[in-house]
Amino acid sequence: MSPQEVKSVMSSGLLSFPVTDFDSQGNFNAKSYAERLEWLAPFGATALFAAGGTGEFFSLTADEYPAIIKTAVDTCKGKVPIIAGAGGPTRFAIQCAQEAERAGAHGVLLLPHYLTEASQEGLAAHVEAVCKSVKFGVIIYNRGISRFTPETVAKLCERNPNLVGFKDGVGDIEAMSAMFLTMGDRLAYLGGLPTAEVYAAAYKALGTPVYSSAVFNFIPKTAIRFYEAVKNDDHATQHHLLKTFFMPYLEIRNRSAGYAVSIVKAGAKIVGHDAGPVRAPLADLKPNEIEELAALIKLVEQ
User: Is 141 a catalytic residue?
Assistant: First the structure.
């Protein structure tokens, strides 16, 4: 898939990022992961992000990463495109991107470099090094300490034709408007805030109708239903699902740092697709919180 084809895929539909399966000892469980992808693939996501943020990329080793991407590519071949996560230090991000390309992934989502602050010049050098290390499409993730100005992104796009997407996880409406108005149709734009459904209608109004859904991991039919409601300006359905599921869901998610991932793994277990525990430094939901989540799932899955 060429970079422009990746851009086209990223420009419509609902995206999602499957959790990564671990066994009871916390090791990658390839069999369970493949079964998860086989279950999710037919529900209609435009692309799946393997080893993304919800896939706990930040906890994976260099040895595990290629196997995770290869499992995703092999399982979903001919069904749904796979975009691999990559991030961390520049040389490690390059290593991941190149491994993903060798494994047959269709593109890469460049996650934040973590911890240290960086200037726009430094961020640009980081992104450009990754872009020039591969031939397939690269999507940058605007989040945390990796926040890009329109001027930086414009210069990067001039020098790197395979930079084709911008995913926003900050939620600054003014900044996102400036990015869209500056770059126009040069990039595909993705909404990437945790529990993106809450922001979906606002981002659509900004010219960013595509977003990635975490809850697709355990209520894929409802996730698609909500996406269709946003696409068709069906405000009644949006408000109903926001009130009955998403806002109470956020109340649980916001109780502890890191629960944005933990609650998704809990949801997957509740619906019969257990992905195992989260890895430290994340912590799993408490039993009473799992019960609360199960009740919410029952409301929308009836």
Answer: yes
